[in-house]
C-alpha cells in the first residue's frame, strides 16, 4: 500500500496510544504528532509513492515541501486507523474506517483535519455511529468524496446540515443520519437525497415529523381557541365579580336617597348604617365608614381584600355580604337586609321563653364557630341590636369588623357577655372596658346570692328552667372571664353547648355542613 511508511512508525504510534491513560489521551497524541519530524529520506518516499500511485491526494501539490509534515502525520494516522478499523490487510488496502461505538477514539480521529484532507482513495465506507458525538456536522469527512457508505446515526450532531456539500459524494449509496438533532430543512427539495429512503433520516431532525406536526396542529387549532375562551371567561368572571360586588358611591347614594335621615337606622362614632333599595329591587343594609381620605393605599387595599373574603361567607346565621364600596370619600359594606326585629327588641317586647333563648345562643354560637374555623381573621359585633331574627326565627349576625385585631380570648369574652344578656335581658354598655366588666360583676354578685335575681323576671320559670339557666350563667361567666385560668377554649364551649341543647330538648346543630350551624371540633 503506497501511503504506508516504514513499520517502525506504526509501532511508534501504536505504543503512544496504548501507553497513555485515556484522561490525557487526546492532548498527548496530538502533541506528540506535532513534535514528530519526518525522517531525512521522507521526501524521496513521497516522490516514489506518487510515481507508483499518482492518484494519491497529496501528489501533485504545488506546496509539497510546505505540506511535508502534514503528509508525514497523515501516513502515521492512516496506518493506525486502518488497523484499528479491523481491515484485513492494511499493507495492501484501506477499505473502511470503522469507529462504531468507540466514543473515546472517534472524536480524536475526527480532530485530525490533515488525515481527512489526504483521505485514502481506497476508503469506501465510514462508520462513526453510536458515539454520542455532538456539535456541527463533521464536514471534514466529505473530503473522502469516493465513499459509498456513511453512517453517522445515534449521535448528537446539531445545527444546519451541509446539504450543498453532499453533492461531491457521487458514489454514495448508503446514508444513515438517524437519531441526531439537526436543524429541520427541506431535504425533499434536494434531488441528491432522492436515492435514500426515509429510514436514513429517522429522528434526525431534518425531515418534519408529520405525525407530531399534526398533533401540534390539532393542539394549536383546538387548544388556542380553548385558551382564548378560558381567558375570556376568566377575565369576564373577574370583571363580573368586581362589578357585581364593587358598589360605587353613586349606587349607594341612589339606594339610600342620598343617605337621607329617614333611611338611617344606626350610628356610632365609627360608622353609620342605612337601609336602602338597589335598582334590581333588593333591600340592603349599608354600613358606611367615613375618613377614607386618612387611609393609606395599603390600608384601602387590605380593606378590599377583606371584603372579598366577606362575600364568600356561607352560613345561615351570618348575613350574606353582597359587596363593598371603596372610594376617596368613604368605604362601606353592603349586606342583605334581614326583615325582622333585633335581639334587643325581641327580648324587651316579647319576653321569649327559655327554649327560644337557648336556640338563639346555640345558633349564634354556630355562626361564630364557622368564622373561627374558616375565617379566623374576620371580626363580628355581638351587640344584641346587631343580631336580627329572620322571619323563620334564625338569629343572623349582621355586623362584621374588617381587619379585626381582637384576640380569641376577647371574642370568647364577648360571646360570654352575649349569653348573659340573653338570660338577664340587661344590656352591657357600649364600651367593653371597665363598664362592661361592671355588668359581669353585677351578674356574679346576684348569681351567688340568688340565681333567680339574675334571670329575666318576665320569663316563666320552673325548677328545671332555673337549673338550666344557672348552668348557662355559669357558662357565660367562664367565657367572660378574661383570666387565663378560667376562660374556655372553643372545643370546650362546643361540648357545653351540645349538653345545653340536649338539656333544653333541642336538636343539636349539624356540625358537618358548612352552610348549616355547627362546629367541626377537629379544626378548632
What would your notes on this structure say?
This protein has about 525 residues and is an alpha/beta fold. It has three domains: about 200 residues, Leucine-rich repeat, LRR (right-handed beta-alpha superhelix), CATH 3.80.10; about 90 residues, 2-Layer Sandwich (Phosphorylase Kinase, domain 1); about 180 residues, Transferase(Phosphotransferase), domain 1 (Orthogonal Bundle). Helix content is about 40%, strand content about 10%. The two termini are about 95 Å apart.
Annotate the secondary structure layout:
Elements: H1 7-19, H2 25-35, H3 42-52, H4 68-84, E1 96-98, H5 106-110, H6 113-117, E2 125-127, E3 134-135, E4 149-151, E5 156-159, E6 174-176, E7 181-182, H7 210-245, H8 249-255, E8 264-267, E9 271-277, E10 283-290, H9 297-310, E11 321-326, E12 330-336, H10 343-350, H11 354-374, E13 379-380, E14 387-389, E15 395-397, E16 400-401, H12 408-424, H13 434-449, H14 463-480, H15 490-503
Parallel strand pairs: 1-2, 2-4, 3-5, 4-6, 5-7
Antiparallel strand pairs: 8-9, 9-10, 10-12, 11-12, 13-16, 14-15
The figure for the number of domains is: 3
Main pleated sheet: 5 strands, antiparallel
Count of alpha and pi helical runs: 15
- Say what the CATH topology of the largest domain is: Leucine-rich repeat, LRR (right-handed beta-alpha superhelix)
Roughly what percent helix? 40-55%
Amino acid at each position: 500500500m503506497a501511503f504506508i511508511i516504514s513499520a517502525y512508525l506504526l509501532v511508534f504510534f501504536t505504543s503512544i496510544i496504548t501507553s497513555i491513560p485515556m484522561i490525557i489521551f487526546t492532548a498527548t497524541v496530538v502533541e506528540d504528532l506535532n513534535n514528530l519530524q519526518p525522517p531525512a529520506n521522507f521526501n524521496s518516499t513521497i516522490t516514489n509513492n506518487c510515481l507508483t500511485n499518482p492518484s494519491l491526494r497529496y501528489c501533485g501539490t504545488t506546496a509539497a515541501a510546505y505540506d511535508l509534515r502534514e503528509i508525514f502525520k497523515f501516513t502515521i494516522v492512516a496506518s493506525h486507523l486502518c488497523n484499528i478499523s479491523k481491515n484485513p490487510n492494511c499493507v495492501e488496502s484501506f477499505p473502511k474506517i470503522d469507529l462504531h461505538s468507540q466514543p473515546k477514539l472517534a472524536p480524536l480521529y475526527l480532530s485530525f483535519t490533515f488525515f481527512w484532507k489526504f483521505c485514502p482513495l481506497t476508503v469506501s465506507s465510514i462508520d462513526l455511529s453510536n458515539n454520542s458525538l455532538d456539535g456541527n456536522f463533521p464536514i471534514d469527512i466529505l473530503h473522502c468524496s469516493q465513499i459509498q457508505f456513511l453512517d453517522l446515526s445515534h449521535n448528537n450532531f446539531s445545527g444546519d446540515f451541509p446539504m450543498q456539500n453532499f453533492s461531491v459524494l457521487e458514489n454514495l449509496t448508503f446514508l444513515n443520519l438517524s437519531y441526531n438533532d439537526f436543524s429541520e430543512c427541506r431535504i425533499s427539495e434536494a434531488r441528491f437525497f432522492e436515492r435514500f429512503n426515509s429510514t436514513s433520516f429517522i429522528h434526525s431532525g431534518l425531515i418534519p415529523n408529520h405525525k407530531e406536526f399534526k398533533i401540534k396542529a390539532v393542539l394549536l387549532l383546538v387548544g388556542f381557541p380553548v385558551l382564548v375562551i378560558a381567558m375570556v371567561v376568566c377575565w369576564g368572571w373577574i370583571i363580573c365579580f368586581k362589578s357585581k360586588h364593587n358598589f360605587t358611591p353613586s349606587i349607594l347614594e341612589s339606594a339610600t336617597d342620598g343617605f337621607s335621615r329617614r333611611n338611617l337606622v344606626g350610628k356610632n362614632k365609627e360608622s353609620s348604617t342605612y337601609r336602602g333599595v338597589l335598582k334590581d329591587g333588593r333591600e340592603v343594609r349599608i354600613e358606611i365608614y367615613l375618613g377614607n381620605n386618612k387611609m393609606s393605599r395599603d390600608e384601602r387595599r387590605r380593606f378590599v381584600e377583606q371584603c372579598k373574603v366577606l362575600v364568600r361567607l356561607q352560613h345561615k346565621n351570618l348575613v350574606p355580604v353582597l359587596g363593598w364600596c371603596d372610594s376617596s370619600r368613604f368605604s362601606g359594606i353592603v349586606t342583605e337586609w334581614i326583615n325582622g326585629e333585633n335581639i334587643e327588641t325581641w327580648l324587651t317586647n316579647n319576653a321569649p321563653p327559655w327554649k327560644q333563648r337557648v336556640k338563639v345562643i346555640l345558633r349564634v354560637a354556630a355562626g361564630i364557630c364557622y368564622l373561627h374555623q374558616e375565617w379566623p381573621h374576620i371580626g363580628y359585633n355581638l351587640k344584641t341590636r346587631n343580631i336580627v331574627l329572620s322571619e323563620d326565627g334564625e338569629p343572623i349576625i349582621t355586623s362584621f369588623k374588617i381587619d379585626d385585631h381582637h384576640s380569641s380570648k376577647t371574642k370568647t369574652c364577648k360571646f360570654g357577655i352575649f349569653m348573659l344578656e340573653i338570660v338577664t335581658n340587661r344590656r352591657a354598655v357600649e364600651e367593653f372596658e371597665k363598664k362592661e366588666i361592671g355588668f359581669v360583676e353585677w351578674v356574679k354578685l346576684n348569681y351567688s346570692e340568688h340565681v333567680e335575681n339574675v334571670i329575666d323576671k318576665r320569663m316563666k320559670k320552673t325548677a328545671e328552667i332555673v337549673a338550666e339557666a344557672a348552668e348557662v350563667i355559669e357558662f357565660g361567666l367562664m367565657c367572660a372571664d378574661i383570666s387565663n385560668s378560667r376562660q374556655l377554649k372553643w372545643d370546650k364551649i362546643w361540648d357545653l353547648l351540645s349538653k345545653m341543647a340536649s338539656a333544653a330538648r333541642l336538636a343539636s346543630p349539624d356540625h358537618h355542613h358548612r352552610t348549616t350551624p355547627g362546629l367541626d371540633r377537629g379544626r378548632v
